[in-house]
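Can anyone check this?
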Amino acid sequence: MGGLPNRQLDIPICAVLLVLFISMAATHMTIFQINRRRDHKFLFSMLLFGFCMARIVALTTRIAWATHPTSLSVGIAAGIFTQAGVLILFVVNVLFSQRVLRAYHPAFGWHPAVKWAYIGLLAVVIVLLIMVISASVSLFFTLNPTERERDRTIQLFAGTFLAAVAFLPIPVVLASLLAPRKTRVEKFGQGRFRTKIQLLLSTAFVLTLGAGFRIGAGFAAPPASTPAWFDSKTCFYVFNFGLEFLVVFAYAVARFDRRFHVPDGSFAPGHYAGGQMHKLTFSDCINREADLFGDVAQAAQTTVMETTPADAEAARQWTEKARRELYGACSVDSQSEEYFSAEEGLE
């Protein structure tokens, strides 16, 4: 896709995209530094900063390739950075889908088998990245038809798998929403839960669109002498850099550092919400003073996230810790109520 870059067309386009990704890199780094000073740990901002830097390097090497079209090393570097950078966005969305799963189904989402499944998936992604880089470099240095066919098979297999990884957050989130649950949603972060879901699904759809288009073009692979419409420079820049910029821009504007933040050190059900999670049983809704003199529905609601007397102090400390991480010690009193009163969303 995109063909060999030239000075007349590729350099102006790459220059514009460079400005856009530099601005996004500065934005996400600024957000990370501000949050770090407030003891608000959110490493995903650094991941998106790293992605923007990878795109800056890819665009810079593509400009250099347009200036020196016979330089093989520059062409290899441009191809590798173009293919590898987007994996960071795939990983971010997969991890966000894990947080949604744990919020809706804590017992299942925090199960060790699910945890190791996610870790295994990320390990496979890293292995496939190494395979793609090796195959891409090999294609530049070999004319053997057998080896070139092998390298192309590796690229197509890895591209198909990574397109599935880009799509994975969509079924995970939808299954989390539709599957029956026995506990209330463990809300995390700031803002409406519905907005979190919409943001994650929309970015996953955009990334899937780009990955699907690239792998489809790879399978078609018309001869270089007669390129198809999907090999044009317009498609190359739109379905690579354009869609990816939309994702990093959407996350910055939506302040995903607040929406997807969870308390530092969370490792079990109840930690996202700042308390201990209990199942709602029939006995929770009877033989209570509130049942006789108050609203039964309200009584049932208050028992879902209720902490036991032994755990009350631990739950209070966990809640205060979450507030300090998100808003900082100086602004807990003024903003914490807004943080913990977000609407239910898609319960």
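Reply from J.R.: I decoded it. The CA atoms of residues 64 and 291 lie 74 Å apart.
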